[in-house]
Batch of 3 targets.
Target 1
Amino acid sequence: MACRDAHRGAELLDFAQFRDSSTQALVYGYGGRSLPELRAREFGRLAGTVYLDHAGATLFPQSQLASFTQDLTENVYGNPHSQNISSKLTHDTVEQVRYRILAHFHASPEDYSVIFTAGSTAALKLVAEAFPWVSPGRESSGSLFCYLTDSHTSVVGMRTVAKAMNVTSIPVRPEDMWSAEKRGAAARDPNCQLPHLFCYPAQSNFSGTRYPLSWIGEVKSGRMCPVSTPGQWFMLLDAASYVSTSSLDLSVHQADFIPISFYKIFGFPTGLGALLVHNRVAPLLRKSYFGGGTAAAYLAGDDFYIPRQSVAERFEDGTISFLDVIALKHGFDALERLTGGMENVMQHTFTLAQYTYTALSSLRYPNGAPVVRIYSDSDFSSPEVQGPIINFNVLDDNGSVIGYSQVDKMASLYNIQVRTGCFCNTGACQRHLGISDEMVKKHLQAGHVCGDDVDLIDGQPTGSVRISFGYMSTLEDAQAFLRFIIATRLRLSSGQAIPQDTLREAGTPLAESEAQNAVTATMNGCRPSPQEDTCTDSRVWNDLLTAVDAVGLHSPVLEATRTQQTSSEKAAGALDGGLGPHIITNLYLYPIKSCAAFEVTRWPIGNQGLLYDRSWMVVNHNGICLSQKQEPRLCLIQPFIDLQRRIMVIKAKGMEPIEVPLENGEQAPICQSKVCADRVNTYDCGEKISSWLSKFLGRPCHLIKQSSNFQRNAKKHSKVMRTERKKYSP
Ligand SMILES: *Cc1c(COP(=O)(O)O)cnc(C)c1O
């Protein structure tokens, strides 16, 4: 059987066997702590979701929030700049948290200071603005700003600040650093104090490559040189990605500046980061702006400003996010309690990454072609050189890349969350994908911008797919992901991969057709492989089966309800005679956005197109419109419009059909919603349908309908916009 052939090489790697055969002592889990129990207790909200974007943002444990909110409800925290008792409590607690952060990085308060910022990016911007750059002039050749090309956008952006100072920026390729490492000794003039800055990531957020921390000492001591030039090198270690799954020992690797974002370590709070600054450079930093809390003294009417002594007080303009700072304490506590420390997190996440990498890189099509191309600088040999990030593109059996958007959509259908694109790291993206500078510019001209879904241009990928593990990731997460790749690429009824052409046929239908094939393969009587056995209880798998069932052309739901449509079609009125050469025979309405289609052969036109087409939508508890991307089960909800009875009947498997009036009789309150970037007026269709939908989708949600005065308002709005523009244009 052809199907059997497709299985070759597609078996899931047996984890126990993998671990036994490894040359290293691989650690999975956190000793006596049960990982499944930890997941159930702290991350219940993940139920059924395979979250693999921890490098984007990791997830906070429930107990962190619980102890944080308890802290806030039991204590009075005032503004830390006041002098009263609640203010003193805030000040002292914040200072305590600073020590806690330093302790986490094995740094002493004698050596390092913590400046709270809005995140890593704000910390990088602060360094760019405060660094003691020397502009080139008669006596000096000027400072240099050097950065590894595998740096995050937020590092590269520092060069605009440098440029304003006439400071030269020099991008340094990883290859050049690696060879500089081998070359060794560079000339250093101890008398030359000209300050240069070199920035590199401890871990690439693109590939998970870990660059040697030893570079800090090597460059600072002059044994290694990013660029051969006299002067003194200051080192910025971008640790934002690295520290989410590793410990960082600043007592050994004494970088001058270390930016971090806390949501990457424990998921909460967001919008809070820090710049760790070595105290030896703190006095050199310049301040270009002064805000509340930073002044020892200043005059309102004269150019007189004396900054405060401590570097933190000098650079934290305004009131810091003090309640969020207090949340950090609970974050560190929870992380320690759940894992026993960052060393364990590093081992656990590395084991998952090495297992997944080994399995993924061994997947082959029946013709021997690899299923994925992995972009990495290491072979995942140790956590010293590789973090728990795997970056890749999926290939077809001819070796052509399947666009990342397609993979993303397909993964969503399996409830797997990955990250796609170029990950705010164009340098790494270009290097790994072989995209030249000219091509980047050409892609822009072709309409591709960072973060969109233009994934292939002339068959060449513009980005890739990234999966990343966090401290609470499990083997089941890794295996669900691998099963997804196997099911979509290798389990086809024909035993052949879907040709590229079919795959490019945009959007959901394609994903559905592929999913259908995947299921056909398993139902065609293939021997059940071990992975099938293990996945029968997984909601991911079940979701797919139901989703496929629903979108099948001969869906029983659709067949059973044809009679209702006929009566509606009659009500739509006859339009006989005088038909032109082009005749529309079938019409599909989508009365509820993202839900199943309602098929008719005749239908009235309303003032916005087909009457009642996309008039309703399902929104979550915050009023956010749900799409199939977040809620694949929407496609199982089948609306029917009965124009005669002026109702919409909604059906779904396992639910009693429910009726919703086509227009709001009781004048429900109108509110504003955002749909596809447009603001529209809507009203809520009531509690009854809300609880019906909530029951079916297993989460609180509502049905809302566009208010019929929408059109008029939209017109009025755009008219106002036009006159405004006229008024202000020169
Ligand atoms: C995330 C990240 C940043 C930027 O962090 P923000 O929290 O977005 O400011 C910078 N560098 C690296 C390596 C990162 O992973």
Note: Residues 119-121, 152, 154, 201, 205, 238, 240-241, 261, 264, 273 surround pyridoxal-5'-phosphate (CB under 6 Å).
Target 2
Amino acid sequence: MATSRGGKQRQPLLHHSPTPAAANGGGAAGRRRFIAFLAAAAALVASYHLLAPTDSSRYHALYLSLGCNATAAAHLRALTLRPHVAGTEANAAAARYVLDAFSSLSFPAHITPYSVLLSYPVHRSLSLAAARGLAARPFSLVQETYKDDPYAAAAAEVLPTYFAYSASGSVAAEVVYANYGHNEDYAYLASRGVDVAGKVALVRYGDLHCEDMVRNARAAGAAAAIVYTDAKDFGGSAPKGAKRRWFPDTRWLPPTGVQVGTLYYGNGDPTTPLWPSCAAGDDCERLSSEDLAGSEAMPGIPALPVSARDGETILKAMGGDVAPPKWQGGEGAPVYRLGPGPAVLNLTYIGNDTLATIENVFAVIQGKEEPDRYVIVGNHRDAWTFGAVDPNSGTAAMLEIGSTEWAEENMDTLASRAVAYLNVDISVFGPGGLKPRATPQLDELIKEASKMVPDPDDPSETMYDTMMRHHPPITRVAGAGTDFAAFVQHIGIPSLDMSYGRFDDYPVYHSLYDDYVWVERFGDPLFHRHVAVASVWGLIVLKLADDEIVPLNYVPYASELEVPFIHI
Ligand SMILES: *[C@@H]1O[C@H](CO)[C@@H](O)[C@H](O)[C@H]1NC(C)=O
Ligand SMILES: *[C@@H]1O[C@H](CO)[C@@H](O)[C@H](O)[C@H]1NC(C)=O
Ligand SMILES: *[C@@H]1O[C@H](CO)[C@@H](O)[C@H](O)[C@H]1NC(C)=O
């Protein structure tokens, strides 16, 4: 059994229920043990234990027949009534909701807490002066609620917009515009004689994660970074002659919408990189705040995300050479210039990086024949705001801390016994077919399962048909800061992650507007896409848990290894 790095024995990987009948899954059959890890999709999975193991095609069909859009909608609504950032009381309540959902289905379930370093805003201010020495105008830094917003009262609980783990500090300096914040963008600025050193870099979302953008800004010498969501990429386009409209009228991000995120450049708890954290009161080795302050994994400069409207206000105040066409905004945007200045931004950010408790919820269906082999299903539960689409987005390391710490703690056991880790972080973005990402030995299984489920948007086709039309071929799981990173990159477990639709159709990502209303109107109006994803997901689980021969096919793996690796 894994021990913490401090040498102290912790609870076993699988916490056994005191009631042996329940722990045995009530005749749940299955050869392998099946861990539903933090999963909110309990209801569909639940039907599994009602089924006889003898006739697999019959119980696969029965499983599929039990999918229910009303249940999916009800769980989503209940989980997103309040914002539930990691470490808060609201997120602990969401954990209890998931625990109760599993328990009510007679699954033995328990919560494993970890104490980890989380990061909250204490004070933010940002002001703009037309030039050094001139009067500065402060930005309100508030995302406005919308007309008839049913969550307007709960919106008061949403944390002020910020970047987790941003350095605290105050910077007043001229601003330089650096497009999407790639290293090449800074190289271009240098080639135009624009010096970024000591300046505030203004960059826009669209190509890179915020932690990459802030890292690149710092590498270029910037003293601070401001990241905004350009209307060109997140605001949608208006029909000719019409005015642009946004949520709740359309799926697009309102002008005051802000995409928040984390700047930590790693996985899991920053104080325990690559080794497990422990519960509050227990003893485990941690990096000190001095270690962290000097760590390359921390952003090292103050940074703040702002809205499209604030980004545009800053750009309007800038001088210098006109930026190249690819750096410009969309229709109706002002002409973007490179700077530096003469506009001066004054940013003050004070954050509180503090140890707080997060909870992993586990439910276990014990297998009969190989109960020491695990098929693991999971995702994260905590959200930056309401989390209706993204209960813990794939880019937000803070949100995956729980699964990372658990994976780190149980690394040896998982490495030898886990059959697969099946993650669904965002199940539905909108229309556009299933988009799986996987390690290659799962490709054939994904295809097989998706052929058994009708497409929710056009039931005359299968999920496989629309998947191959919209998203061929199956892509690979990659990327730090994702739910599955610890499982794939640290432990080497066959893993998949999948969603329905396209990320580009989800402009409210990590903003105030990622709420139930958005999902009901734009993401998945009848919740059939949620059910379809759960159906494919569950079939893959059933086959991995029950097939006589574990359905991992290494032929695609061999082919993949022959593909020249060109994308470094
Ligand atoms: C920047 O803003 C802070 C907070 O509002 C203020 O105390 C400080 O004097 C400002 N700095 C400059 C150089 O204007
Ligand atoms: C930081 O968070 C801790 C724990 O929640 C709290 O006790 C402390 O008062 C906070 N500090 C500031 C400056 O807000
Ligand atoms: C579930 O699907 C049915 C049939 O399409 C539809 O009438 C109902 O409104 C859906 N329920 C929800 C909560 O969307």
Note: The longest helix spans residues 528-546.
Target 3
Amino acid sequence: MVLRKLRRYIRLLLCSCVVIFLVIFLLLNNHLPQQAPTSGHGTSTRIKHLQSRSTSPFCSQFNETMLNLDHENFPNCRPKMEWMRDNWETHACYSELGVDGSECSSFVYLSQIEQHCPPAFPSHSNIPPASVIQSRKLEELLLLLSDSDVNYNFIKSRITRLFPKWIQGINELQNSIPNLWNRPRLNLILYLGFLSHETGLKFGEKSTTGGPLGEMVQWADLITSVFILGHNVSISSEWNSFKTKADEYENQGPCPRLDGKQVDLIFTDIMGLRRIKRKKKNFFTSNKCKFRMLDSFGTHAEFNSNAYFKAHSSQIGGKNAWGGHELALQQFLTMYPHTDDNTFLGFVVETYDFHETVARENITVVYGKEKYMWKDSEPILQIAANYTQIHATVADSDEIMPAFH
Ligand SMILES: *[C@@H]1O[C@H](CO)[C@@H](O)[C@H](O)[C@H]1NC(C)=O
Ligand SMILES: *[C@@H]1O[C@H](CO)[C@@H](O)[C@H](O)[C@H]1NC(C)=O
Ligand SMILES: *[C@@H]1O[C@H](CO)[C@@H](O)[C@H](O)[C@H]1NC(C)=O
Ligand SMILES: *[C@@H]1O[C@H](CO)[C@@H](O)[C@H](O)[C@H]1NC(C)=O
């Protein structure tokens, strides 16, 4: 047990660029059960393909024994086929995509468009989806961070400083994963909700004066990784720019869009999620399984579930300000490995080669990022101050803080 914990902390401490690349690489490849394993391009190619094959020889030579509704890798095939039998007319999009009420047309639709059934046309079953586009230009990445002048100061400076190490990291990774560049290019939307001016937190502005940086570090490294891994990345820190981007992917019907355009994953934080749930409910419900939450401290099961929390609130605390979103626990990306239920998403720790011996001094660092957190702390600080100097950063204090020497 102790060993396991220790290992986790070591993992936390030793995050080099290549480790973070690997974590994010695996994260993007790791689909939750409900998630459609398609990329925008892949679907679009398949739809064109299907339309051109709508009077395909497949259905004219159709023989029910050819259809495998019980393939072990496609557990939803039979139930979906049964649903289509009675419901294919509930929305016009099914017939626009070639369904005409026949078994065969439903099967072709479910196999080619929704991937719930095994491939109908064996020779075309593996249409390669559009591949990632490599980019190693810092300028291109910085251009993506453009919907605010103040929000990204810290993130940009971290990205710029670490960029050469990221390039070194990706070179290392591609040596160990040869087909690294042969994967679908995902459409990713990143919404840094905690920076939005509507939250009133001014995290962006405070980043140079002692404001909280943990979230910024985690975001900066995620942004760099998904960009260098070659995905189609769109980044917003303000609500309006997020909304415009999300609207582009709005889908009115239950089928994939005819142009094949779809968002693959949405990265946001709890504040971003709350706003999305309030202001774009449909977008949230139709993409619920595609959300990935940057959640530095993580979310435990008992806080995630509303019913459980209500039933036990007297034992575990009165309010559930950050929880209750009822996502799959692995959708929460934490940088503190408190629980294995969440997904680990750390950040790069910079290491330096020291050649001189560093003389240690007695210094106490106090973590108290805002003034209110220091309330009633004086007696304790007094004790520490009798032995050491005390250092701290406080984001919102305009007064001179008491000097403890
Ligand atoms: C369907 O295909 C199977 C196997 O190829 C064959 O035995 C059967 O006679 C066919 N049925 C019809 C109705 O063509
Ligand atoms: C890439 O993302 C942008 C912004 O979300 C979107 O407008 C564009 O259509 C995407 N490209 C593809 C090929 O889907
Ligand atoms: C730090 O403080 C402790 C306790 O007062 C003392 O024993 C130690 O010598 C100090 N170390 C230095 C480097 O000042
Ligand atoms: C700090 O040290 C002084 C004397 O060196 C002592 O009088 C005082 O009680 C100490 N304060 C605390 C809080 O330990």
Note: The beta strands are 187-191, 232-236, 265-268, 291-294, 332-334, 343-344, 363-366, 389-392.
